[in-house]
Amino acid sequence: xxxxxxxxxxxxxxxxxxxxAIRQYIDLQDEAEDAFYFIANLHxxxxxxxxxxxxxxxxxxxxxxxxxxxxxxxxxxxIQSDVPEVSELCWLLMTGAPMGLLERCHAYKDxxxxxxxxxxxxxxxxxxxxADILAYDSDTVPVGEDQVQHIExxxxxxxxxxxxxxxxxxxxxxxxxxxxxxxxxTDGEKMSKSYGNTLEVFEDPKHLRxxxxxxxxxxxxxxxxxxxxxxxxxxxxxxxxxxxxxxxxADTYRRGGFGYGEVKKALSELATDYFVEARERRSQLExxxxxxxxxxxxxxxxxxxxxxxxxLRAQRACGVKP
Length: 322
Ligand code: ADP
Ligand code: TRP
Prior knowledge:
It is a single chain. This protein is mainly alpha-helical. The chain folds into 2 domains: about 1-180 and about 290-320, Rossmann fold (3-Layer(aba) Sandwich), CATH 3.40.50; about 205-275, Tyrosyl-Transfer RNA Synthetase. The protein has 14 helices and 5 strands. It has helices at about 15-30, 40-45, 50-65, 85-95, 100-105, 105-115, 120-135, 150-165, 205-215, 230-240, 245-255, 260-275, 275-285, 290-320; strands spanning about 1-5, 35-40, 75-80, 140-145, 175. Helix 8 (about 150-165) links the parallel strand 4 and strand 5. The chain is globular, with a radius of gyration of 22 Å. The two termini are about 30 Å apart.
């Protein structure tokens, strides 16, 4: 299994990103024969238009992933733009990408539907993503449900290139993440940067506690028994609780006679403890930017070597190289 996935540095990671994606990337590094993970800064450039902010978010994303357990000895971590071969490959794929296929892709389609003008970068976003995937002969792409369409586009583009020019690309498969069970945000809707309802992984514990205390709950009286399954506060608690704690909390809900404040306090303690080691590792990494640069440099060198082979194969196949 050759695993690859990318994550956009468009904001600091929240619990949805961690439980929905990052944790599973990290678990896969042990199973895969090869695992490539990158910070998709070229994709992020379609939305983040402030240079300082984009660079800071990119470095923060790298440090966060390392702190959360991504191990450079077992997985290759790099910044997307450090592999220019991918942008070249993107052009080769673009020449055979039907307009209609890209017009159906959701990011572009949604923007158009809202009456906003889209730029070429957003339109071609799925082609760059296809180049990301095909450049490393990856066969397995762990992603959330929302990215499945892009993997389908990748397969279409690869298959059509192979059909025209002969076997060149490996057709990848999406590995839809199991717990892509959506993590709810502080308002009960899906946790997302765009809804402003996130709880961040590396939030300062005091501030996190305040945010947790503000999680929206219903106004049922304390005595009333409540159904745990449908309660977003309970769902958040379950992300961090072990089986016994989960069972006990579910019983408390069903019995009634408790205040949501108690649940929030318990959640805040569990969540803070859960990320304690990651927070320590993060401080160490932040204090040692040279080490981070070195990891990203080594990752980019390894990624470039592979991408250069695949690019040459594609260039020869379509006749831009002898
Ligand atoms: P956001 O919605 O905050 O902009 P992204 O789209 O950048 O987040 O998310 C990156 C990945 O994190 C997604 O592909 C998805 O797999 C995962 N993810 C994001 N939010 C959630 C959530 N609330 N629940 C589960 N997974 C999520
Ligand atoms: N579009 C993906 C997202 O928003 C990020 C991404 C870019 C990606 N290139 C990729 C994911 C290649 C998987 C494979 O989450």
